[in-house]
Design brief:
The protein is globular, with a radius of gyration of 23 Å. It has a six-stranded parallel beta sheet, sandwiched between helices. By secondary structure, it is α/β, with parallel strands linked by helices. The protein folds into three domains: 53 residues, no CATH class; 171 residues, Rossmann fold (3-Layer(aba) Sandwich); 122 residues, N-(1-d-carboxylethyl)-l-norvaline Dehydrogenase, domain 2 (Orthogonal Bundle). The structure holds NADP nicotinamide-adenine-dinucleotide phosphate. NADP nicotinamide-adenine-dinucleotide phosphate (NAP) binds next to helix 6 and helix 14.
Length: 371
């Protein structure tokens, strides 16, 4: 039988089903596998129960850490290091990311332009800061998750936040802002002695809520270990690509793939409907074969129901297509240009706040105009 220590059993702290991690700011609780597990667990439980008022617990995935060096992949590790993290931007993505940082035991300060969204995290233990500068002042790590470059400039630079960040502090920039802005912000951070890590994410609302994002990280190699406690809390893993800016470049490549795919799916559905084919029979026909992809079903369902709750808002998808074209410069990408037109059209039809799959309306409108 597991020994009970002040209400927690040692079994609670043993790896196996899940790891239980205590959230003491600035403290490190390492739960290791192998010999000595019982002792580690007992010490952990006694420590937890000495501080009932500050006790924060979370269950954590048991995934091995693997991978070193540029281009290597890593999954969340078994050990937890907690620290002071400021999260600027608590929207669809930043809100759940802050929540998962709290669950992992980090001391989290949040700021959001619309304060109510930040205040929603208060009861889960976040401190709400009145300004970005106030949020970052004592943070060891600053994580930004804002709409675009303009929002970042306003929040981090123009507000004076960057000047308030600690010398040697770490800034993990996870918003999708494109190549030019990323390079500019990396330079500005460097001039002020801030370590800048460019780490946009793969995954949308649900993976953000589940702590299952995938981080496309880039920056100085020595920053990697400092990022990992944050990555562990919000992601299923990361790839470390090399110098800052490479994460954003890979993010644009990945988004190019999915955004053009979204337009392709919308046109495929509208073509089916024009030909009197039930789009569901198209989904059934590709199901499980080489032509299939989960996104076709996920977003196809939304198109079938003409119900597009925002997971990745169309207005952000449109921004990202523009970022792809901007990054490509003189290189001709006709498919991306056509996709841009369709996102513009759906936006002008009033679907900007719906999910990106609402790009369907652009093709549906033209089909309707012909009939
Ligand atoms: P969101 O819910 O619209 O959140 C955007 C955040 O930016 C909010 O906190 C918003 O504040 C803030 N903001 C916008 N303009 C601002 C300004 N001028 N000054 C200060 N704050 C401003 O969007 P999201 O889905 O979380 O996306 C955030 C970023 O992640 C974007 O770059 C997006 O492309 C990227 N991303 C999104 C997804 C996804 O599936 N949703 C996936 C991967 C990456 P308010 O609350 O006051 O409006």
């Amino acid at each position: 039988m597991p020994r009970v220590v002040g209400g927690l059993t040692t079994a609670d702290l043993l790896p196996g089903k899940d790891d239980l991690v205590a959230g003491f700011p600035q403290q490190r609780l390492s739960i290791s596998h192998g010999c000595g597990e019982d002792q580690v667990a007992e010490a952990g439980a006694e420590e937890l129960n000495r501080h009932p008022s500050t006790l924060k617990l979370r269950f954590r995935r048991s995934v091995q850490h693997a991978g070193e060096g540029p281009g290597s992949f890593a999954a969340p590790r078994e050990e937890a290091t907690v620290g002071r993290v400021a999260v600027l931007g608590t929207g669809i993505m930043g809100g759940p990311m802050a929540r998962n940082l709290l669950r992992a035991g980090h001391e989290v300060t949040v700021w959001n332009r619309t304060m109510e969204k930040a205040e929603a995290l208060e009861e889960e233990g976040a401190r709400v800061a009145p300004t970005p500068a106030d949020a970052v002042r004592d943070a060891e790590i600053v994580l930004t998750m804002l709409t675009d470059a303009q929002a970042l400039e306003a929040t981090v630079v123009e507000s004076g936040g960057l000047d308030e960040m600690r010398q040697g502090g770490l800034w993990i920039q996870t918003s999708t802002i494109g190549v030019a802005a990323t390079d500019r912000l990396a330079e500005e951070a460097g001039e002020r002695g801030i370590t800048f890590v460019d780490a946009p994410v793969l995954g949308t609302k649900k993976p953000a809520e589940d702590g299952q994002l995938f981080m496309l990280a880039s920056g100085p190699e020595e920053a990697r270990a400092r990022c990992e406690p944050v990555f562990d809390a919000i992601s299923r893993g990361h790839v470390w690509l090399g110098e800052a800016g490479l994460g954003t470049r890979l993010k644009l490549v990945a988004n190019n793939w999915i955004l053009c795919t979204m337009e392709n799916l919308a046109e495929t559905f509208v073509l089916a409907q024009t030909l009197g084919v039930d789009p569901r029979s198209f989904l059934d026909a590709i199901s499980g074969g080489a032509m299939d992809m989960p996104y076709a079903h996920l977003k196809g369902e939304a198109m079938l129901n003409q119900d597009f709750p925002a997971s990745f808002p169309l207005v952000h998808a449109r921004k990202d297509v523009a970022l792809v074209l901007d990054a490509a410069g003189d290189v001709e990408l006709p498919l991306v240009r056509a996709t841009m037109q369709q996102f513009d059209r759906a936006f002008e039809l009033g679907h900007g706040d719906e999910d990106m799959s609402a790009v369907y309306y652009a093709s549906a409108a033209s089909a309707g105009a012909r009939s």
